Amino acid sequence: MTRSSESRNSKSYSCLTCRQRKVKCDRRVPCCNCVRADKQCSFVPPVRGKRKRTRPPREGLHAKLERYEKLLSLHGIKSEPSDDLDDSDSESDACMDEDANAVDTPQSTLEETKPKLIIREGVSRYFDSAPWSIFGGEFQHPEVGGPVDESFSDENALFFGQNEKVENLASLHPSVQILPKLRDIYADRVDPLVKILHLPTFSTTLENGLRHPVERSRSLEAIMFAFYLAVVSTLNDVECQDLFGLSESVMYSRYRLATRLALINARLLSTSNLMTLQAYVLFMMCVRKSYSCDTLFVLSGVAIRLARKMGLHRDGSFLGLSPFETEMRRRIWWHLVHVDFRVADVLGARPSMDITCADTKTPLNVDDEDLHPDMTDLPPERNGIAPISLCLIRHEIMVSLHDFSTSSPADMRWEVLLGPNVPPAKKDHIISQIEDHLERKYLRYCDPANPLHTFVSIMIRFSICKMKLVAHNPRQFARIPPKDLQRERDIVFANATKLLEYVTLVQGGHHGLEKYTWQIGTSALWNAMLYMLIEIRHRRTGPEVDRSWQLIGLVFSCPRIFGRTPAPVDTVLRKWTLEVWDHYVAASRAEGLPEPSTPEYIDAIRGRSRSTRDPTRTEPLAAERGSVIESSLGCNQIQSNGYESLPDFESLDSCEFPDILSFEMDPNEWVQWEQLVAEGGRS
Where is this region: Disordered (predicted)? Predict the structure, then answer.
């Protein structure tokens, strides 16, 4: 057979039998495989499958880099243009051939664009948007990449106000000899309230920073000054003189300025460094007594955003972090949530929505000694009170407010207790459940001889009283049926009394509690004072009213509550105190009772000369003061007079505010009152 006849008898495709057997066919008619196997050889044209979808043309390497550089510039990150790349046909073809061999599946695309946490040289950056997560591994933050533009410094200076200069920050560090004393004070007075540091590792870092100043990073210097500021914030003048040789006010101002400058140097507003964030959190907690709530609300928002940028809103167990780092990030995140919740409450605002979009788990109730950086598993929780317990109790109180919320996502504000959607009986039931839970988990382990345990006990009871006061707020009296009104009044009066007793226990320094007063706010106190004055005015006379006047005297005797420069809310409360006292005296006369002796604090409010007071009233008043707070925790210590700390009250006559009874007749009066609390209360 000639070659031409063979080509005519051959096919361009395999026979059906060879295709089914998946063997090579010589495409002759019949093929040799079918002849040997004595099979019928039939050539059936194959059915074409679905046409492969043509991919869109891939952009060249140069175009891709140019697009990425534009994305970086949009986010304020400078990048050098890549001029040395030649977008030739050969490179494009090679790139396309390489891409053609890649398997483009939905799963691989998902892996490329899912959120990522990039950690490098102590800096953590969280990416949750697709463009950034694709090349997040190659991202280099300015803190890691080297020097940045001077505009970073200008932005931070603008944020912190006037950019005051200190010739040498290094000269402001204390001597290493007093470091052990500073650490002890921090562990005793600051750490239980602001549990964001792991003291064993931080103590080593702090000592190394003091002994080797050349090796100090900017973030370390920031947290060192924040540490000094936190310690000074808890000291009185005598203690400060003993430690530093200067007054508390001088040292506080010095370290507040030093911390601000150190945060500017650490580029706070652009930081991804966890240590810088810790320094900023300590700074926020220490300036509460000197910054307004409006300012603190903004500072808190900055901290929340910085934390989100570092991925603290995502639990470390989901990000593949070590148990130690996971636990420390949980502590910082939940402390920030509490700060934002607390400041927003004073201002009557909602906390940041960022805190509701988080999956960070609650920290464990463990001691610092239970944690170490090389651990492979988290330790079991401790039973009872640990240094972190107070922070966990705050968290449980915040989360419990979700049970009263009917919105989605659940609202986390005290105001949800006022909502009409939850019946009063159900509110009381939920509050009782919360109280029982805290009793079983914490209160039954409290040792009255331990100041921290006593403080935890007071804060739990204080929080429960506040929940009951908000749930039965007097602003609701106008719409309560008359048959239920007296019960509501009794609940408000009883819990306002308890709340003020707890405040005076802490502010009065009983049981060694004075070391925690630097973090006690006043907004809840003002509301409780108003509620008590409303009830005293309503009840007129009686043993409960007499005890209430003694308790109000205790509140006025606390110098940390009523300072020398009163806020408008202080002035209004003093005005109402005088009005209600005058009604009390008039009611006693009308009922034929002996006219009550005027207490010293009433004289002080009226601005009378201390020389005109009757000295015979001092001892009975002091004796009575001890009995008021005895019922709470068995305390029978007597608080010394503190009325000399009250400021001048000449502005009371010019204070225009309605009669206290108008709150029950006109609910709109509460709006003005809440504004005063927001302006004058401390968070």
Answer: 76-111
What sections of 475-591 are H helices per DSSP?
482-507, 523-539, 543-556, 568-590
- Pick from 432, 429, 455, 431: nearest CA to 442: 455
Provide the CB-side half-sphere exposure for 241 (13 A, CA).
4
Q: What is the DSSP letter of 39?
A: -
Measured distance CA(360)–CA(316) in Å, rounded: 8
- Rounded to whole angstroms, the Cα distance separating 300 from 305 reads 9
What amino acid is encoded at 159 in this protein? F
* Cα separation, 339 vs 142, whole angstroms: 29
Structure-block tokens of residue 478:
């106008």
pLDDT for 504-514, tens place per residue? 888 876 778 88
**Cα R_g (the chain), whole angstroms:** 35
Residue 124's φ and ψ, nearest 5 degrees, are -120, 135
pLDDT at residue 153 is higher than 70: no
Candidate from 74-88, 458-472, 530-544 with smallest mean pLDDT? 74-88
Q: At what angle do helices 248-265 and 151-159 cross, to 10 degrees?
A: 150
CA–CA separation, 662 vs 576, rounded Å? 12
553, 618 contact by CB (below 8 A): no
Cβ neighbour number for residue 395 with a 10 Å cutoff: 17
- Residue 144 CA to residue 123 CA, distance in Å, equals 8
Query: Which H or E element spans position 116?
Result: strand 116-120
Query: Which of 549, 552, 454 minimizes the C-alpha distance to 506?
Result: 454
pLDDT digits (tens, 9 = 90+) for 170-209: 899 999 999 999 999 999 999 999 999 999 999 999 999 9
Average pLDDT rounded to a whole number, residues 56-82: 63
Torsion sign over Cα 349, 353, 354, 359: positive
* Model pLDDT for residues 307-365, shown as the tens digit of each residue: 999 999 999 888 889 999 999 999 999 999 999 988 888 887 888 888 778 889 999 99
